[in-house]
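ok trying again, last paste got cut off:
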Amino acid sequence: MAGIEIRLAVPEDAERVSLIRQTAAEEASRYRGTRLAPPLSPRDGFVLVGGAEGEVWGCLECSRVEESIWSIDRVHVLEEARDIGIGDALVRACADEVVRRGGLQLVSSAQPGDRSLKNLFERNGMVAQTILVGRFLSDPASGEDVSR
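nice, full thing came through this time. structure:
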């Protein structure tokens, strides 16, 4: 593949971004504690797309948490385009965009077992600050008590 290209998503990217979101959700279901944020609306943040040779292979969704704190809610690169640097380029471009919008801090999370996402964040200077633990007391789908 030729050089990596990163840009803000445009309406014409919607179908490809939807496919990437669906693939991300399917892959995330393998990990414990998975909770993907709902898709962003433009007023909440921004979506970046990345790829090569005119084809979009990955996307990153970022939202404002507080005045100067932003969160990467989802970053995903389709399997056939991994290991060429699209994920790293998306995270770097996200940091640049957050700074451009006045942000001072960028945060995110990775699910237990998602080593590749953890490694992506660490390669880009993001390190664990808090470990969040929890459990469901009732099944979210059925409401059945699962607390015992």
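cool. The chain has a mean pLDDT of 87. The chain has three helices and five strands.
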